[in-house]
Amino acid sequence: MNLRRVWAVAHKEWREIVRDRVYFLLAFILPPVLMLVFGYGVTQEVENVPFALLDEDRSALSRDYAHHYISSRYFDYRGQLTGLRDADRLLADGRIVVVLVIPARFGEELTAGRRVVIQTLIDGTFTARGRTVLGYVESINAAAAGELQARAVMRRLGIGPAQAEVLLQPVRVEARYLYNQELKSIWGVAPAMIMFILILTAPLLAALSVVREKETGAIYNVYASTISRAEYLAGKLAPSVLISFLNGMVLWLM
């Protein structure tokens, strides 16, 4: 293999990539854009879900129950509603995703020891997000119901919070997530995107270069020259390897 021939092809290829706007964008701008779109834009976390509250009871117990949702980092409280018509309008406009409806006599029914049904309206346009939001609602409701049960047991038996918790939940599971304790998808998606982008861009540049030379007729100069196939391919791929190395460093820093 003649290194002078390889260098000549690589030098020509590099000059074309730097001078051509489309090539330059594909080589240096496309990889960071893909990282931003797929690494940071396409996230799997469902947080700060906009929700509104329709409290028809307006008692101390209903405010305590609603506070579990308002204080959660998974929900973004957007205010009180006056009726179900407002809820339907806001859900249809996409301004909110969840509406929590606390019925009248909520506190009275709980004080009397009777079960109360809470209505939750969830926007099901995106099914994955809807299922996740439903899981949040069920978890927060279970926590609130557990606090109410603990208070009832404490009043009836005259015991402390710790003893009431043991009676209500004798077996407790404490889960710890290793290597990604916050369960942020960005920590798994972004490193994988580096390899995916590098695998995508280098062959794309080389393929486009060969196709353009064939369309313009410049490939016949290669046919008529004494350069071998291996030298031609090595010269074509050398700038792509260098660009991939630079892009890898930029993506790693991102």
Number of strands: 4
Which value, in Å, is the CA radius of gyration?
31 Å
> N-to-C terminal Cα separation, in Å?
38 Å
Average of pLDDT: 86
Task: Please tally the helical runs, counting DSSP H or I stretches of 4 or more residues.
Answer: 10
Which structural class best describes the helix and strand composition? alpha/beta
| Sheet of most strands | 4 strands, mixed
Poorly predicted spans: none
- Helix fraction by DSSP (H/I, runs of at least 4): 55-70%
Q: Biggest sheet, strands in spatial order?
A: 2-1-3-4
Shape designation: elongated
Structure overview:
- With 254 residues, the chain is an alpha/beta fold.
- Strand 1, helix 3 (60-70) and strand 2 form a beta-alpha-beta unit.
- The longest helix has 31 residues, at 127-157.
- The chain has ten helices and four strands; from the N terminus they run ααβαβαβαβααααα.
- Helix 1 crosses helix 10 and helix 2 (21-41) packs across helix 10 (229-253).
- The model has no long low-confidence stretch (mean pLDDT 86).
- The relative contact order is 0.16.
- It has a four-stranded mixed sheet, sandwiched between helices.
